[in-house]
Amino acid sequence: MNPVKKIGRYQLPILNVVSIARREGIGLALNQGICRIVDLINQRFKLNLAWRVNAYDVELINGRHIKFTGLEKQQYDEAMELHGTAMQVYGICRGLGLRT
Amino acid sequence: MAYQGYDIPPQIGFVGSSIPGLPTTLDEVNPAYYDQILKFVMDKGGRLASFSGVVLYDTLRIDAGVLPTRDFVFFQNPVGATQGLFVAGTQYSKQDIDIHQWISNGGQLSQGYEALLWEIGVQFHVVGSLDNSVQTAGNAINLALDPGTLTTAAAADGIFMGNVMRAFQESLFFSFFINQTNFELGPGWRFPSGCFGAAGFAAQCSGATAPAFAIEDGYLNNGFGWAYQMPVMRHLPPLTKFGVRMSVQNPFTTLLTGPVRVVVTLGGLGVQPVTG
After folding, report:
1. Residue B223 φ/ψ, nearest 5 degrees
2. What's the pTM?
3. pLDDT of A28-73, one tens digit each?
4. Deepest of B62, B104, B105, B110, by most Cβ within 10 A of its Cβ?
C-alpha cells in the first residue's frame, strides 16, 4: 500500500520518495536571507508576499527531483509516521486472523 | 504524459516487449481495510498500548423443550444482569463465561471502549450424549454438573447430534445490527464458528454388561474452522447500540437432545483506556 497524500504543493504516493537531503551552503543561506527580507517587507508595508525556502532536495522513485520546504518536510514526516502506525495495526489485524 | 511525483513506467524494454510496471510495495494489502484502519488509528491517536485482540461473545442457554418462536438479541444483558433459560425462562445472573466484559447496559460498549470487527460466528454447542447431570440452580443453571462417563450413561443419552446441528443451522435466523441498520444476516449455517468450538472425540461403548447398549460421545462444530469475514470492517464506537438478533422460525424441540448453548462471536481489534 502506497497511500497518496497531499504534501504542501504536491500530491504524491509517499513511498515513492527515495531520499531526502537537506540543502546546505551558500544557496540555502541566500534563500533564507531573501525570505527574511520578504518577511520584513510584509511587516513594514502590510503586504502578503510569499517566498519559499526550499530547504530539502527530494528524489522520487522515477528519478525526478522535487523540493520540500520545512513545512512540507514536516507534513511528509507526519504522513510517513501515520502510515507506519497504520501498517503496524494492519499487521496486528493480520495476526489476529484478518484475511487478505 | 508525465505527472510529477507519480510513477512513470520505465522505457527500458526491447522493441515489442511489454513495458514493466514499477514494483510497488505491499501489494497484498487490502486498500479498503487499510483506509479503515488508517482512519481508526487517526481517531485513536495511534497509541498501540490501548489495542488488543477482541472477540465479543454472548451465550444463550437453551434448555430442554420446544423452542419458542420469538427473538433473542445477543449482547444486550451484561455481566451481572439477569437472563432466562430460553425455553423455561428460569432466571440467572450472567457471568464472565456468558458474555464479554466490555458489554454494558443497553447493548453497547462502555465509554472509552471501541472495536473494529471483521468476523462474525455462531456456535451451536451440540454434543453426542447427555451430561450425567446439570446444575439445577444458581448462576450456572443448565450447565454441566457431572459431565459423566460411559459407565454412567443411559440408553436414552445417545443423541443424533448431526440432526440436532442441522436443526439449529436451518431453524434459527441471525442478523447483525448497529443502531437501526442490519448488516450481515442469514440462517445459522451462514456464520460458521471459525476457530472456536470443538469437533470429533468419539468414544464408543457397547457390551453385554451395563451399559449394554452402544453409545458414542462426540462434539459437532458449526462449520469447518473458518469464520465468515465481513467485506467491510464494522466500527463499534462506544455507547452505540449493536447486537445480533436471533429469530426462531422453526420451533423444533430439544426435549430429548439436552441443553444446547448458542454462542455468537464478533471478532476483531479492540481499543480500551489504558492507565499508567
Report:
1. 105, -165
2. 0.82
3. 788 888 888 888 888 888 888 777 788 899 999 888 899 998 899 9
4. B62
